[in-house]
TrEMBL record:
Keywords: Coiled coil, Membrane, Signal, Transmembrane, Transmembrane helix. The keyword Coiled coil applies. The chain crosses the membrane at residues 6-24. The lineage of its organism: Bacteria, Pseudomonadati, Bacteroidota, Cytophagia, Cytophagales. The keyword Membrane applies. It holds the Pfam family OmpH. This is OmpH family outer membrane protein. Gene3D superfamilies: Skp domain. Belongs to the Skp family. Residues 57-124 form a coiled coil. InterPro entries: Chaperone_Skp, Skp_dom_sf.
Amino acid sequence: MKNLSLVLNIILIVAVGVLFFLHFSGESSEPQQEPGIMEAAEYSVGYINADSVLKNYDFFKEMQEKLQERGQKLEDEYKSRAEGLQKEVNDYQRNVNNLTIGQAKAVEESLMKKQQNLRMLQESLSQELIKEESKINQELYEKITSYLDDYSKNHGLQMVVKYNQGSDVLYASDSMNITNAVIKGLNDAYKKEKEAPVEGEANTDTTAVN
């Protein structure tokens, strides 16, 4: 699941250009500051620990488990096919001396074709798993960005950044840390989403029989 952790890097990338725009756009009639002094821009920033969000977000944990289960199921399917083919190869090698040249050639061609089909199956299963992982990544992206958009509007934030070891943010005050609030909000929203009735279930009409 390495790729899933990259999603937040896309979601929470620090838009440095935006900060420059906010500070330098528009004309100002006030005198220039002395060199080395920059007037504070009027914006609010919050940060989250991306690893903590992924570790504690129920949606991500459930999707991760489902993807692992799906991956195991596909692996078992491939393994079963591969073992079946290996058995046929062993049977051929054991009985090849009892076959005519024509029969042996026919069996070999059949085994080669099955081997090619097995290779194609492996590629197909891999692509299927990649597609499912990509779908989860997109859904994760949409859920987090949507929640952060609402959270920022409700709390007067102009930007939310990722603050982890290795990120571009070198220091941030603890007062700017909204990680726990975001995790709680995401999980509350996901819980409501799961508990919401499926469309059509609650509208089952009963027809009276006269």
